[in-house]
Amino acid sequence: ASSGDETATFSMPIYACQRRTTLDHRNAVFTEALSLLAENAELSQDEGRAVAFRRAAATLKAFPEPLTDARQLRGCPCLGQHSLSVIQDILENGSSREVEATRRSERFKAMKLLTAIFGVGAKTAAQWFQEGIRNLPQLHQSGRVLTRAQQAGVAHYDDLTQSVTRAEADTIGQIVEEAVGAKLPSARVTLVGGFRRGKLSGHDVDFLITHPEEGREEGLIPKVVAHLEARDFLLYHKNNRNSYTEASGTPASTMDHFERCFSIFKLPMPEGGEPHSRQDDVALRRGECRRWRAVRVDLVVCPFSQFAFALLGWTGSKLFERELRRWATQQKNMSLSSHALYDNKQRKYLKAATEEEIFAHLSLEYIPPSERNA
Ligand code: CTP
Ligand code: MN
Ligand code: MN
Ligand code: MN
Prior knowledge:
By secondary structure, this protein is an alpha+beta fold.
């Protein structure tokens, strides 16, 4: 219907898992502003607000043209009053006062810096902030007792706050494949997380491991870890055993129960390569040959029958996953997790060997990994 003005109204589906969201889009100024507010809400442990801003950012990531007028957004979902006022502010003034004030605030800066330490979440950082701790030297002076993970996080802070390249991810992939192949031939290693979605850099590297004969994958993590340790590839690791049973109830929870390892790899650097971190420079000046960098790596092992669910669950993005689960619950009366899909009406688990089959069970059009960047 003609509405008398030129802006075409265009309809966007409500759930991010109904949309194709690529890495590049037309509205970075807006999505970065909304993402910063989402991050700030996460750091304040205000989950509801964080999700609202994440959804608003995702709407703009999927918006097909550069935004020049708020009227273009009519018919777009998930844009609340708050997000719209931020958008309006940017349209009128080139930036949002709230966003810029948040970006500069002492609390936001300190919380970002502290949660960038591996092993430090929003809760711990908030407690430290409360006690006046704003940076690493102050943390050190405070004499706080750190967990083993946090100690590793502090020791490798410079490396771990530098993003991982695709080339580094591929090198780590070769190391992981060699270790897995040595311990369990014909096991399969799949790169998941942001790199599977086509990202060119990431904060870590995620791998999903399985074996076509169900059961053979059990207890693989400790063996792979021992293999990697013997070759001096690990700076830190924490293993978790598989704790999943169908009896543990409907699989609606966000946390999965796979056998896994959260680790920090010691990645050798190519000879003659640029020194990567400040620690490297220091070491080289001391005459030590310290040509490696620390990289966060997640290893997850799943039984073959759960592979499609684990693959879907570990590919992300986090918002895309959240929206898939919300769709399943609200629109299909089903419970989706990284282990299984349960149909509450039929009271049975729905099997799937591929991601395509899971989308089909959910009556969703298949969205490939590169278009799950919500
Ligand atoms: N994930 C999960 N359980 C965890 C941690 C992560 O299911 N305990 C899932 C997330 O939902 C996400 C995927 O694993 O879909 C990858 O998580 P993460 O590495 O944190 O994010 P990426 O999308 O890979 O982004 P980045 O490049 O920053 O690593
Ligand atoms: Mn952290
Ligand atoms: Mn990742
Ligand atoms: Mn990860």
